[in-house]
Amino acid sequence: MHGAVHHVELWVPDLAAARATWGWLFDRLGYTPFQEWEHGRSWRLGDCYIVMEESPAMRHEPYDRLRPGLNHLAFTVGSRAALDAIVSDGTRHGWRLLFPERHPFAGGPGHYAAYLEDGQGFEVELVAEDPPAKA
Questions:
Q1: At 60, is the pLDDT very low, low, confident or very high (cuts 50, 70, 90)?
Q2: Is the pLDDT of residue 122 over 90?
Q3: Is the pLDDT at 132 greater than 90, yes or no?
Q4: Three-state DSSP state, 68
Q5: How far from the centroid of its chain's Cα atoms is residue 115's Cα?
């Protein structure tokens, strides 16, 4: 599809840690292992894949999602129940819930989502696809 994302590549300071946290999340989101090499790993869903690489060419400065550059990746999740289950299990897999005082509406009313951060400072937003319940 013209203009679709082909792949995303994230350079991480600790590939083993990224494999543990992201690998678990990608599995929950339906991604499958795609490629593996000495300094990296990728996961695929449909035509798009995501790479985690601890590149030897990487500058060893801490990642900060609040600096210019990538702030977070956002993924859709099939339902509110599926999102809630990922959030519930996430802490056992290296994820921390951001904005817990406003969860699950930290993105605004009617936007049922979770914002999670891994131990290396990378953030994901998980957005429930099912519509809000009618009052």
A1: confident
A2: yes
A3: no
A4: coil
A5: 9
Output the six-digit token pair for 63.
């990642």
Residue 77: count other Cβ atoms within 10 Å of its Cβ: 23
Q: At what angle do helices 80-90 and 15-29 cross, to 10 degrees?
A: 160
Record the tokens describing residue 47, joined without a space: 């035509």
Q: How far apart are CA 79 and CA 85, in angstroms?
A: 10
Please list the alpha-helical segments (H only) found in 7-119: 15-29, 80-90
Q: 134 pLDDT band (50/70/90 cuts)?
A: low
Residue in the structure block whose two tokens are 């005082």: 101
Compute, in degrees rounded to 10, the torsion defined by CA atoms 31, 33, 35, 39: 100
